[in-house]
Amino acid sequence: MTQFNQTEDTALVLFSGGQDSSTCLAWALARYPHVETVGFHYGQRHAVEMECREPIRQALACDRLGIDHVVDLTVTIAALGQTAMTADIAIEMDQGGLPNTFVPGRNLLFLTCAAAIAYRRGLRRIVTGVCETDYSGYPDCRDDTVKAMQLALNLGMQRRFVLETPLMWRDKAATWALAFDLGGDKLVGVIRERTHTCYLGNRTDRHTWGFGCGTCPACQLRARGWERWTEAGPVCGAV
User: Fold this and answer.
1) At what angle do helices 172-194 and 48-59 cross, to 10 degrees?
2) Against a cut of 0.90, is the pTM above it?
3) Cβ neighbours around 237 below 10 Å, total
4) Alpha helix ranges (H) inside 98-199
5) Which residues are CB-neighbours of 154 under 8 A, at least 6 positions away?
6) Who has greater pLDDT, 228 or 48?
7) β-bridge partners, 69
8) CATH homologous superfamily for 10-232?
9) Domain boundaries along the sequence of the chain
10) 17, 91, 96, 165: which could form a disulfide with 49 (CB 3.0–4.6 Å)?
11) Nearest C-alpha neighbor of 23 from the set 218, 228, 187, 196
């Protein structure tokens, strides 16, 4: 099994098959000579996103794109209790002021598993699409959380991982703009047609921004970002 030198700028992208992680994959491929991906089964209602991953990888295929890893956390996440992301229950705010789509510990588990794979593979940079600008209030998407995780992972694994968050300070309109900057109409087309965002797993109803129910929080956020970006007009800029 190939293992890379930890001083090399190799990357592992947390890749769900959604808009954000697909944009992050394109971003990493534009920067690093070797990029691998990792996805997670965790009993998500929108498990169809996992079926979207390989077609997206094929669409972005190049000599920089390495192997894909898939980790099954279904039993682990299920043991922590149900949420609207993992069970057929209505999406609403909970008593703590967070949407009940929040899966406690999910992103922390993802980053820990990703770091373990990066350790084994000799990959230095771990790229995740979490965002504090346009997000649902998830505390594990915050910049402070990611910085704390980087410190903990580096201490606990005695490595110098760099956790990259290219979308942290971008809203959804800026995320569409970044995709256009990275790959023009072709990449935007891949994001629209092949990625999955809808919490309810809807791949039947097609909108200008892609497939989804159009009413869940994830669809609404994606749609609003698309509208703001297209109203402003696609303009190439620095990435």
Assistant:
1) 90
2) no
3) 10
4) 106-121, 143-157, 172-194
5) 160, 161
6) 228
7) 38
8) HUPs (3.40.50.620)
9) 10-232
10) 17
11) 187
